[in-house]
Design goal:
This protein has 606 residues and is an alpha/beta fold. It is built from 20 helices and ten strands. Bound molecules: adenosine-5'-triphosphate and magnesium ion.
Length: 606
């Protein structure tokens, strides 16, 4: 049983070494020094107890201490023995303080280091991996499991402390009375074997707790995200049924772990007393020794036992937090395997065009885009139309390098996307996503992305961007104007207002390429017309790529591509496409009452 224990100890030492580095060795040394100082102090008790005895009647151990002190040039007086006793315990206290301060330093740093590490791994993870991950799990890893893992580290330190002290006490006891000490070691071994099942079960429950934690977080996030729907439809109870079930399992596992932790605490103290009592009885009745002779030995044994038992408790507590380490390790490995490949070539300028050549993309076995060929010249506008699920947003995901085509190429001024550092590429894009993105902060921070709005130039740019996105009228109606807090995902605004704030932010960013995915879908005809005027202003000095179901939004684009079932079925200008009376585009125009040159037939309902 000791082999798996040692293997585990070494394994987790390596794990923590990976995070804490050499500091772990320093900490272990300080712990050991604390144990040695305490043993020296305790050892001083023996010569002190037999100080008045004649030299021949003193045991070998006392005589050795005396001769050691004499070789050190320290006279054996009551005073020198007491001073040594004091120094040894003082040193022990100092080492314990250093050890506590140092382990506090390591643990607090560890929480931060692991969280920072996860943040950068989250930033670098591949988009397709993110879409197949569970947000609850990712959130749980960085918040709860990281803390549990570091909590396990604290328990591990306790385990190390207890082991060090046990080893020091046992060595000192072996020196004093090796036969009795061997007997005590055997008894400790038996106790361990008896309690081993508890540690195993605790480990198993710990992993289950981590799983439940992730599920609870996931359900909680979904409940809060969809609060409005759940409340309006009185559907909370359906989600809560699952949530409460998980919470009950979580409670049960915790309860079992706590009960298992209570067992050794209850059993071990009386066991120690029984063993010590047996030892006293054996030494005094059978061996005819004096109590003073065996007192120090008994103190060592008592201390060793207490440490063995606190080892058992801390080992079990360590096992109860192991789930945290395992989740942190698993998540780190998964994230490392799913990082975006790093490329060295930076996109430094945009001169000519972006070109997609024979691009094919599938989600798993499901083909979503087939043989896509599109040329997007600089400062031209490109409109994309097509039925729902045709692959339009996926095309944007390819364009921004979030997804990589399985075959075919995308070129940035002739450079293959595969060679480009994606962060540099993405800095050229302004992107109004299909589900407009706003943050729970002020309107000005949402537009400027936390640039300091007290600076006049920033403030002016925020206001002009808001003006271009036709936000001014509704901002003026709010009590706090640009300082109005938008609420989570913009709950304090209408859908159309959220879209306009998202557009204002991208206008503020002033990037060479602007992509808009159904950016005006929630707007009324009047607001849409106003935004179109702003888009028109951008034409010619910015590259625009616009996805829209509404033909009114894309009618003025230089090129229009019609997507259907992942393929480009038609392309050309509005008028060219309108000529093909058998085409999909012509049908769309008919449905939306558009005539040639994008003129809307207003006598018919839109
Ligand atoms: N992460 C994903 N995993 C698997 N399939 C996906 C994923 N994202 C999208 N799809 C599928 O890919 C197809 C194209 O989706 P996409 O979002 O590109 O359509 P779209 O043309 O933008 O539609 P809409 O007009 O409704 O926004 C859809 O059939 C969709 O179900
Ligand atoms: Mg879409």
């Amino acid at each position: 049983m000791t082999i798996p224990l040692i293997t585990r100890l070494v394994h987790y030492f390596n794990v923590f070494y990976g995070y804490a580095g050499k500091k772990l060795f320093i900490l272990s040394t300080v712990i050991l020094l604390g144990g040695i100082s305490e043993s020296i102090g305790l050892s001083m008790l023996l010569p002190l107890l037999s100080f008045n005895e004649v030299s021949e009647t003193q045991n070998a151990y006392c005589r050795q201490i005396y001769s050691f002190l004499e070789t050190m040039g320290i006279g054996v007086t009551l005073w020198s023995l007491l001073t040594l006793l004091f120094i040894a315990f003082l040193l022990k206290s100092i080492f314990i303080f250093i050890q506590e301060a140092f382990s506090a330093y390591i643990t607090t740093n560890l929480v931060k280091t692991i969280r920072v590490m996860f943040c950068s791994k989250y930033e670098g993870m591949r988009y397709d991996f993110f879409t197949s991950s569970n947000t609850g799990y990712l959130n749980n890893v960085i918040t709860i499991e990281t803390k549990r893992a570091v909590g396990a580290f604290t328990k591990y330190i306790e385990v190390l402390i207890n082991i060090s002290f046990v080893l020091v006490y046992i060595s000192a006891s072996l020196f004093l009375e090796w036969r009795l000490t061997l007997f005590v070691i055997v008894i400790c071994g038996v106790i361990f074997i008896l309690l081993r099942g508890l540690s195993r079960a605790t480990r198993r429950f710990s992993v289950l707790i981590s799983e439940r934690n992730a599920q609870i977080q996931s359900l909680l996030i979904q409940t809060l995200h969809n609060f409005k729907y759940l409340k309006a439809t009185n559907n909370f109870y359906l989600l809560f049924k699952q949530l409460f079930h998980r919470m009950e399992q979580y409670r049960l596992y915790h309860f079992k772990i706590k009960i298992m932790a209570a067992i050794p605490k209850t059993v071990l103290e009386p066991t120690t007393i029984i063993i010590i009592a047996v030892l006293i009885w054996y030494n005094i009745v059978f061996r005819g020794k004096m109590m003073a002779d065996i007192l120090v030995l008994l103190i060592f044994f008592y201390r060793a036992f207490s440490r063995v038992f606190s080892f058992q408790t801390s080992w079990q507590k360590f096992n109860s937090s192991i789930g945290g380490i395992e989740v942190v390790q698993k998540a780190t490995k998964e994230l490392e395997q799913n990082q975006e490949t790093s490329c060295n070539q930076k996109a430094v300028q945009f001169i000519k065009h972006i070109e997609l050549k024979n691009v094919n993309f599938s989600f798993g076995n499901r083909k979503v885009l087939s043989n896509i060929n599109i040329l997007i010249p600089k400062n031209k506008s490109v409109g994309i139309v097509g039925e729902s699920g045709a692959g339009k947003t996926t095309f944007f995901d390819l364009l921004t390098g979030l997804l990589e085509p399985q075959s075919g190429h995308i070129f940035w001024d002739g450079i293959d996307y595969r060679k480009l550092e994606k962060a540099s590429l993405r800095s050229f894009f302004g992107y109004v996503t299909q589900e407009a993105v706003v943050f729970n902060d002020t309107i000005s921070n949402n537009i400027s992305f936390w640039q300091d709005c007290r600076i006049d130039s920033v403030r002016q740019k925020v206001e002009s961007s808001a003006e271009m996105a036709h936000c001014t009228s509704f901002i003026q109606e709010t009590n706090d104007g640009y300082d109005t807090i938008l609420g989570d995902r913009g709950v304090k605004l209408s859908g159309g207002q959220v879209q306009r704030i998202a557009i204002a932010r991208e206008i503020y960013k002033d990037t060479p390429i602007m992509i808009l995915d159904e950016a005006v879908s929630a707007l009324d005809t009047e607001s849409e017309k106003n935004i179109q005027k702003s888009i028109k202003k951008m034409k010619g000095n910015r590259t625009l790529i616009i996805i829209s179901h509404r033909l009114s939004t894309i009618k003025d684009c230089d090129y229009i591509y019609v997507f259907s079932k992942g393929k480009i079925v038609e392309k050309g200008s509005f008028d060219e496409l309108y000529q093909n009376k058998n085409g999909v585009f012509y049908d769309m125009c008919q449905m939306q009452h558009f005539g040639a040159s994008g003129v809307h037939n207003s006598t018919k309902p839109v």
